[in-house]
Amino acid sequence: MTDQPLPDIRPDVPHGARIWNYWLGGKDNYAADREIGDAVSSVFPEIVDMAFKSRQFLIRAVRHLAGEAGIRQFLDVGTGLPTMQNTHEVAQSVAPEAKIVYVDNDPLVLAHARALLVNTTPEGVTQYIDADYHQPDRIIEQAREILDFSRPIAVMFMGVFGYVPDYDEARSIISRVIDTTPSGSYLALWDGTSTSEAVVRGARAQAELGSPYQLRTVEEIRGWFAGTEPIEPGIVPLTQWRPENVEVGRTEHIDAYCGVGRKP
């Protein structure tokens, strides 16, 4: 939880959360992260746009879940470094009483979470679990101390499974968490897809520098939603999930797919 001691930060070891922070224009990254970020963007410049578009999907999804879907509990696994409009800020702006549990295991993320991931409303709850998404049982155990698992929960995995090489392991992590939630809960996720030569080159450059990211097929991402009922518009590119203020037919394609599924 948030009162755990802070482990040593390793600036010489690249980390996905800090690389992503660099692409988003943040300052919470180190030379090792920037080296990989520059190498990937040199062969796949669209990665920077993907970073922003993924955040916009998160905002739209959380706004829908807290609003129209009536969800009041969120479990954001692999949250990354705090940036613009974090999950708790979006959820509590719609539902002031919303409870949000963030999960990550990067010590720099933990340091910033302690300072920045705090309630925006007096009636809300915002907490942080220092855990790895490879440890779903640990996540569930600690989340139960904060969230009511007899009531619906929105479980979020935003761009984290590219760092899980084995597809079935990622599917197991998702199912082990979702299986503990009741009917009416939701799964929201996105991940990078091998839908262009450019994105494949970018992933190859990232791997060659020691931070491999496993792209998925669209069908594989659809498979992660097994056991849920994807809401409209289904499993689609980031920019096509309920876009706002965009003319029909003018939303550009992006090499990352997303969706929100309801547990029956």
From TrEMBL:
Pfam families: Methyltransf_19. Keywords: Methyltransferase, Transferase. GO terms for biological process: methylation. One of its GO terms (molecular function) is methyltransferase activity. This is S-adenosyl methyltransferase. It comes from Pseudonocardia hierapolitana.
